[in-house]
Amino acid sequence: xxxxxxxxxxxxxxxxxxxxxxxxxxxxxxxxxxxxxxxxxxxxxxxxxxxxxxxxxxxxxxxxxxxxxxxxxxxxxxxxxxxxxxxxxxxxxxxxxxxxxxxxxxxxxxxxxxxxxxxxxxxxxxxxxxxxxxxxxxxxxxxxxxxxxxxxxxxxxxxxxxxxxxxxx
Length: 169
Prior knowledge:
Distance between the termini: 66 Å
Shape: elongated
Radius of gyration: 19 Å
Strand content: 15-25%
């Protein structure tokens, strides 16, 4: 295992079927965390359910896939890092763009595959538990990704409803 005070050590990268995560310490106090994951194309059956119910089901399914992918990446990366050092608590401010390409097929909603990459530069973390830092970071990323995904699907529902209403008019 690495020392909690290592500097310029080799990056630690793990890869799974869903994505990749890298931890890189650039100096004793500066860290770069890079996480990326893929969501496959999704289909939601809309026959026999309200549009709102079908879109909500697709949203919940994507959130489940995201939680699984990020949870696995975070756990595997943390397991490769040192857990010695002081514990960490931090907040994360995010500026992001999140889009989905979707197709209303009448009785089905098709959402194209998506790729998400999160890169954060963390400064002032000398002597912290690297594994603990990764676990806390991934917990915050999952929270923020869930909010972002819910916002995207809220917009999908709004757009689908408007398109369907304009077709009926």
